[in-house]
Amino acid sequence: MIKFNIPPFTGRELENIKKAVNSEKICGDGEFTKQCNEWIERKTGTSKALLTTSCTHALEMAALLCDIKPGDEVIMPSYTFVSTADAFVLRGARIVFVDIRPDTMNINEALIEDAITDCTKAIVPVHYAGISCEMDTIMDIANRHNLKVVEDAAQGVYSYYKGKALGSIGDFGCYSFHETKNYSMGEGGALLISDAGLIEQAEIIREKGTNRSKFFRGEIDKYTWVNKGSSYLPSELNAAYLYAQLEEADKINQSRLDTWEFYFRELTPLYEKGRISLPFVPKECQHNAHMFYIKCADLTERTRLINYLKEHDILSVFHYVPLHTAPAGRRFGCFHGEDRYTTKESERIIRLPLYYGIKEEDREKVVQVVRKFFSN
Q: Domain coordinates of the chain in residue numbers?
């Protein structure tokens, strides 16, 4: 069976975990957590990166830092994971969904401004498949309307827009290090903060509302509860696991890109015959090969292809059911304008197996089976 995903593993993870255990500091903010934070800051140029227990929690921290309150509105695509919306719903916000672009599956930047009201507080672009949204336009809209921008870059680690790392362009960026991502700590994430003036507040939120981080740096002689917060700090064991992969980030990235480019090249003849659609990467974007997808004609054909691949021992998946069609989406949000592409395109997409170290014979079999399906 060719699995859809196998979590990345370099071989040094267990050695790092042993080092963390021997250091007798496993609760978080030890040396491996600091090294992960510094790696992200170095690679992205952000003012501060803070490792978190998940991308969901990074988004929740961003919502707190944006001071989202009941009655505020937050604009985002409906084609995303539930955490993108949940983080703001928890603060009492109403979610305003807008349609996506069919080429990148990202939020349609041309539709954002019309959705802005006096209640709008933030825009949340989601960088689907590690391919950037049109960030210049989004930042211009945000600046003119005095709105915060929170980048959901869960899939965007090591991706760039016009040379800028995804997650470092808006006010806040949120990464995921879930086992399905390019670099993993099992469950985990990171919050990127562009405004250095908000770092102390973010540290307080992350440490249960206390100034514990300042205490451990020797800046105060005792720590206390100073503001609202929660437990967003991951275990040092998780950070140790992740750092082994960050040290091999270029190697992992190149492996994934090789597979992505193989799929694209080998399936281009089907695209040229009009049988499938392939991913589109705008020229200003440098992606990280987070996923490779194709689009079938419709939902019926996609279902048949998924079943056909499974019959040939290949696991493939589709992605999000649009949030505005879900019970909670209808309760906590609304779709602004016409759903021209969100639902239709979401029903066409199918993701092929892609992970670090996938065997050449496995990816060749995937291509052969896909070709055979369409030839029949």
A: 13-246, 249-375
